[in-house]
Design a protein that fits this description.
By secondary structure, the protein is an alpha/beta fold. The chain folds into two domains: 193 residues, NAD(P)-binding Rossmann-like Domain (Rossmann fold); 55 residues, no CATH class. The strands form three sheets. Strands 5-4-3-6-7-9-8 form a seven-stranded mixed β-sheet. Strands 1-2 form a two-stranded antiparallel sheet. A two-stranded antiparallel ribbon has the order 10-11. Helix 1 runs parallel beside helix 2 and helix 1 runs antiparallel to helix 6. The radius of gyration is 21 Å and the shape is globular.
Length: 260
Amino acid sequence: MDALSSMATISGYKAVLIAADTLPRMFPMLMTAAGTVAPARVLVIGAGVAGLQAIATARRLGAVVSGYDIRTAVKEQIESLGARFVILNVEAGGAAGSTEDKGGYAKAMGEDFYRRQREAMGSVLAEQNVVITTAAVPGKKAPILITREMVERMAPGSVVVDIAAERGGNCELTKPGETVTHNGIGILGPLNLPSTVPYHASQMYAKNIATFLKYLIGKDGQLTIDREDEIVRETLVTHRGEVVHAKVRELMGLAAPQAV
């Protein structure tokens, strides 16, 4: 039922293809009659579904890949795909696991944390040919992880593909839906990447919807609205003529529904 993961899988895959097509060099190391071609160095920031798919795809193309996420719990996942986990030694503060929300996604951190993260990330970026950013916080503007100064430290010809462009972008120079060239570095802010792979995007989303409807209908073939069920509760917007979803009511400025 997880449509977000389905679409993120496509976004991560397609972002690497865009980067490979834009980068003025090849991804894999090649032994040729004209000498050895060094592999491209790729950094993926954010190891959610999109980030992990980007890491896997870049590895398949033969790049030397590194991955970074504020959640140290994903270290094993990054390394299992053959990439190096980047450690910045930036303390998040608070209790263990405070970088994740209850759904396992990265939580929004304070500006002081992001500032220290950018300072530590600068030298890492300078070594990369490709940077793919996927850091998004559900329901909030994407955090700025790459500043203008950080981009300027990268080698000319390098490429930044900002998957988070639809939520403002992780790079300060990102312009949603456009390609920006700054000091010879290309910053791409693609929008709606799943739509560029329509066959599998439709196939996967259709499966998500069908599975969700089967869950609601149940084995007896009757539609059941169990408002105590977490999945039903979090997806139900209206019931018997009343707006019941807490977030929707909040956005509409409605008071909490009265118990009957």
